[in-house]
Amino acid sequence: MSTQREMKERNPWHRPVTIIITVIGVIAIVTLVTVLVIQNRTIAQKYKYGIVLDAGSSHTSLYIYQWPAEKDNNTGRVEQKHHCQVAGKGISSYTATPYKAGESLISCLKEAKENIPQKMHPETPLYLGATAGMRLLKLENSSASDEVFKAVEKTLRGFPFSYQGARLLAGQEEGAFGWVTVNYLDDRLTQGLETTGALDLGGASTQISFVSDEYNGSESPDNAVSFRLYGYDYTLYTHSFLCYGKDQALRLALAHQTKSGPTAITDPCFHNGYNETRHYAAVYDSPCVSDQKPQIVSETFIHLGGGNFTQCQEVIKSIFNFTSCRYSRCSFNGIFQPPLQGQFGAFSAYFFVMNFLNLTDTSVPLKTVMQKLSDYCATPWTQIKKEHDIPLKYLAEYCFSGTYILTLMMEGYNFTSETYSSIKYIQKIKNSDAGWTLGYMLNLTNMIPAEAPDSPPLTYTSYVSVVTVMAILLFVIFILILYSLWPKFNTEPKII
Ligand SMILES: Nc1nc2c(ncn2[C@@H]2O[C@H](COP(=O)(O)OP(=O)(O)O)[C@@H](O)[C@H]2O)c(=O)[nH]1
């Protein structure tokens, strides 16, 4: 002890040197870590934005997406920042007053202005895609559809965003972009993992899209969409059935039951006690059923409920045509479909309906699911109305919609009681809605590269951790070297 004290006393700069080196070392480490963390945070807080309007048959939705600015054209995750549901019906319902289709979008576009920083407005791309509602309107009245598009375009151009066009999506695009959305959000594309199929049920059309090892696009090439994403090649099977969305399918079912022009029908897909007067003109006012319109005996018919699941299934089966198939295998209506493969995500109305019916758990045996739906359909209308406080128009249709979903899947697409559990009913994946809009924007902004981008070997967090640990290690080694040199320092004053 006394020798040490003597050494310190004889070596006047011994303590100050230690203190100074320690202080400098600590300052260096703190500075290094602070710079790394601040640098990281500043970059991550800068976002870019994109807006997509989904002009569907039943309504229009606006989605705002955001992604970290520095991860443009890279693997950076694009996520949904905001969703706004446009009040009123879909744009295809404004044929008599097209300007109102444009006006209907204004409040959601104003919300978009509030949700995106002002300085980013001019560089925020704005897209509108219209689906089956407008596809039907175009078939029915092409000039009316043009007028609606013009009105919508006028409104969109009046906002400070970078307007990129309003257009009608083809059925294949709707199916393929829904598939891209699901697999992008599930992080399957960057890693080349086995993909998830996509089942989308809208109001006017329904899409099925999946990759099958037994499909390379040579049989029925119209159903093939090929992609190269992140260095992996995909040949996707996709088909969109126009008129088989749940609202048009209900018209097909009603048309089937009223083809002889009766004044009343007992519909097994509606609850016992249900009783509504319907106009023939309204039921048949769609290109999906207009050619089946009976010679009218009366303007209206009484729509009574029968509440019978099995009979409802029979009615629904009759809207599918299973008789002709010119391919090796078909789903229905003579449309080719390869064997089902892998997991499937079922979204949009698949989710709304099955969620309402408490039937989203597909690990429950299909037999039990059918029994529960059968019990629900057999529940009297007065009791259903007492138990649920939602608009009666929607409430009345869940027995039909649930039965339609199961029949479409089992009879139409050929799922079995064994493969039913490969379906997951989904609404959102990591806070972004499942649907075609995200895939559409990713494609149009070139956000998914064909080749795998050169990514740094470490994630940013690992990089910061490694640099910090190495800095501390170097500092400790530096101190140890210094200590090993101390005897030399200590002897010098002694010599003096
Ligand atoms: N129960 C319920 N049904 C919905 C909801 N949103 C839409 N639907 C219905 O689900 C169907 C499909 O809706 P959507 O996917 O928006 O189809 P689109 O309008 O054709 O694009 C339509 O029949 C809608 O009326 C919802 O939040 N709840």
Your description of this structure?
The protein is of the alpha/beta class and 496 residues long. Among the domains are: 2-44 and 465-495, no CATH class; 246-425, Exopolyphosphatase. Domain 2 (Nucleotidyltransferase, domain 5, 2-Layer Sandwich), CATH 3.30.420. The protein has 17 helices and 16 strands. Strands 8-9-7-6-13-14 form a six-stranded mixed beta sheet. Strands 3-2-1-4-5 form a five-stranded mixed beta sheet, sandwiched between helices. A three-stranded mixed beta sheet has the order 10-12-11. α5 (132-140) packs across α6 (142-157) and α7 crosses α16 (436-444). The longest helix is centred in the C-terminal third of the chain and has 36 residues, at 460-495. The mean pLDDT is 91. The structure holds guanosine-5'-diphosphate (GDP). The site of guanosine-5'-diphosphate (GDP) has 19 residues, from α5, α8 and α11.
Topology overview:
Layout lengths: L1 H9 L3 H31 L2 E9 L4 E9 L10 E7 L12 H6 L2 H10 L9 E6 L1 H9 L1 H16 L4 E7 L2 H15 L11 E5 L3 E6 L13 E6 L2 E11 L3 H12 L6 E4 L7 E5 H4 L16 E6 L3 H9 L26 E5 H8 L9 H13 L2 H7 L4 H5 L1 H15 L10 E3 L2 E2 L2 E2 L2 H9 L15 H36 L1
Parallel strand pairs: 1-4, 4-5, 6-13, 10-12, 13-14
Antiparallel strand pairs: 1-2, 2-3, 6-7, 7-9, 8-9, 11-12, 15-16
Helix pairs in contact: 2-17, 5-6, 7-16, 10-15, 11-15, 12-15
| Gap between N and C termini | 23 Å
Largest beta sheet: what is the strand line-up?
Answer: 8-9-7-6-13-14
Task: Find the CATH superfamily of the domain at 246-425.
Answer: Exopolyphosphatase. Domain 2
What is the average of the pLDDT values? 91
**Given the helix and strand composition, which structural class is it?**
alpha/beta
DSSP, total strands: 16
Strand content: 15-25%
CATH architectural grouping of the domain at 246-425: 2-Layer Sandwich
Low-confidence stretches: none
CATH structural class of the domain at 246-425: Alpha Beta
Quick one: overall form? elongated
Alpha carbon gyration radius? 32 Å
The total of helices stands at 17
Q: State the CATH topology of the domain at 246-425.
A: Nucleotidyltransferase, domain 5
Helical coverage, percent range: 40-55%
Q: Any ligands, ions or cofactors bound here, and which?
A: guanosine-5'-diphosphate
Report the sheet with the most strands, covering strand number, pairing sense and barrel closure. 6 strands, mixed
Binding site for ATP: 203-207
GO molecular function, one term: apyrase activity
Active site: 174
Transmembrane segments: 17-38, 463-486
